[in-house]
């Protein structure tokens, strides 16, 4: 007999395979004669198909978490099991061995300057009193100015946006205060809008907006550990801090872009 | 603690089985595809952390519903404003999604805030999801009399709903 409205919870449990044998049998019989419930089940299936085509498991932030915690020798062995890729892995191993060595060499000041002043991957506009202006670090910003960050990314899939102020206070903007993650998944392209604007508070002094681009999700804890090594007591001047963050990103597979503003 | 390779496959199966249901639920609260996706990932990250204990109880769906409900409620309570987006603010018909988001936020802020977590869950399951008391009892693992008690107190103090 047809129901007036679908047996929502039973159908969702059935759909998830959590009904016991008797319950599943009863539900299967019921579905043969109830278009309301069978329609709801079809809706759940269509929703699932659409969802997984848009967000397959590989796009989930936690995917690969189990593999990442495997012993390094298991992972390395798995990589070297592909004979055709051995030359590539050999070069990778060489690069991994060389990077710490190269990083430890003192570079000339000029070369450090080039790294520090690298390509801009973030820019911004701001809104004040209802009007929108192009952002510039030369402007002195005020409480309630609303900043919209734009980013350019051609190879990174995740972005963590933080700000550090003169007191060393670190603020994360997405996904939210309850989240363990500091990063969000981003689209690739040029001058794309970060999904939330930032309203400036009343603290005075400088604020360093820092975008960390990466190819895997980043936890807030990782960012805190990274910054802990950079923030000394007393707090370094913002130019030095900006230099340090750009010089030594969160990881070898990440990239940093910064904007330093002043709030008056 | 080392996690074995087979856990990855297990997580993938659980994700493919349940993630669309969680996402659907988060979307009904947050009214934003991006935020619902972030919330879904957050809930599944927490699931991975607690998986052995949840599997012992054998009720993954009810755990996911409870966690996503509480997470979305706390997100809505902490939202301080709507993203500055020229496109959203410039068109005529495009405020609908934001209006809906504001309404849900308002409901959560005004009506749910004063209540304990259990009552919040019961109210959400009743008035937003439309589950009956028997279904809520199965989801939460509590008796129907307990559910009725919470709902009665909520209706009396909120004054927003007629007594049934």
Give me the number of helical elements of chain A: 9
Contiguous runs where pLDDT drops below 50 for at least 5 residues of chain A: 109-120
How much β-strand is present in the residues of chain A?
15-25%
Largest interface: A-B, 49 and 50 residues
Stretches of chain B where pLDDT falls below 50 for ≥5 residues?
1-6, 82-95
Oligomer state equals: heterodimer
Q: What's the overall average pLDDT of chain B, rounded?
A: 77
Number of strands of chain B: 0
Radius of gyration of chain A: 25 Å
Radius of gyration of chain B using CA atoms only: 18 Å
Provide the structure class of chain A.
alpha+beta
The proportion of strand residues of chain B reads under 5%
- Biggest sheet features of chain A: 6 strands, mixed
The termini of chain B sit apart by 52 Å
**N-to-C order of helices and strands of chain A:** HHHHHHHEEEEEEEEEEHHE
Number of discrete helical segments of chain B? 8
What structural category do the secondary elements of chain B indicate? mainly alpha
Distance between the termini of chain A: 71 Å
Shape of chain A: flat
Describe the structure concisely for a colleague:
The complex is a heterodimer of chains A (264) and B (164). Chain A has 264 residues and is α+β, with helices and mostly antiparallel strands.
């Amino acid at each position: 007999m047809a129901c007036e409205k679908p047996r929502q919870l039973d159908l969702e449990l059935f759909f998830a395979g959590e009904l016991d044998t008797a319950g599943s049998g009863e539900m299967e019989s019921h579905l043969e004669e109830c278009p309301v419930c069978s329609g709801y089940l079809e809706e759940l299936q269509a929703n699932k198909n659409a969802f997984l085509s848009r967000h397959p498991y590989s796009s989930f932030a936690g995917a690969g978490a189990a593999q990442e915690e495997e012993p390094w020798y298991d992972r390395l062995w798995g990589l070297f099991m592909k004979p055709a890729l051995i030359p590539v892995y050999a070069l990778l191993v060489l690069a991994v061995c060389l990077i710490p060595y190269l990083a430890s060499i003192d570079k000339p000041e000029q070369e450090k300057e080039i790294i520090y002043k690298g390509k801009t991957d973030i820019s911004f506009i701001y809104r004040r009193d209802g009007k929108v202006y192009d952002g510039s670090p030369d402007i002195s910003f005020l409480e309630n100015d609303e900043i919209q960050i734009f980013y350019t990314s051609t190879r990174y899939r995740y972005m963590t946006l933080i700000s550090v102020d003169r007191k060393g206070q670190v603020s994360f903007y997405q996904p939210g205060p309850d989240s363990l993650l500091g990063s969000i998944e981003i689209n690739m392209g040029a001058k794309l809008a970060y999904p939330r604007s930032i309203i400036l508070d009343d603290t005075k002094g400088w604020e360093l907006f820092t975008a960390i681009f990466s190819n895997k999700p980043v936890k807030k804890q990782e960012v805190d550990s990274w910054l802990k090594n950079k923030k000394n007591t007393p707090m370094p001047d913002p130019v030095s801090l900006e230099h340090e963050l750009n010089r030594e990103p969160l990881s070898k597979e990440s990239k940093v872009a910064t904007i330093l503003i002043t709030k008056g | 603690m080392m996690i074995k390779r087979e856990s990855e496959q297990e997580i993938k199966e659980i994700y493919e089985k349940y993630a669309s249901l969680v996402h659907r639920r988060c979307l009904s609260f947050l009214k934003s595809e991006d935020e619902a996706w972030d919330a879904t990932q957050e809930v599944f990250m927490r699931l991975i952390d607690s998986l052995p204990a949840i599997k012992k109880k054998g009720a993954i769906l009810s755990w996911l519903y409870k966690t996503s409900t509480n997470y979305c409620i706390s997100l809505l309570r902490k939202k301080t404003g709507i993203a500055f987006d020229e496109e959203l603010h410039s068109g005529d018909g495009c405020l609908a999604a934001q209006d809906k988001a504001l309404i849900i936020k308002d409901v959560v802020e005004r009506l749910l805030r004063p209540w304990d977590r259990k009552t919040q869950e019961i109210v959400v399951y009743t008035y937003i999801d439309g589950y009956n008391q028997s279904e809520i009892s199965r989801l939460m693992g509590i008796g129907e009399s307990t559910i009725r008690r919470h709902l009665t107190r909520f209706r009396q103090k909120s004054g927003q709903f007629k007594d049934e």
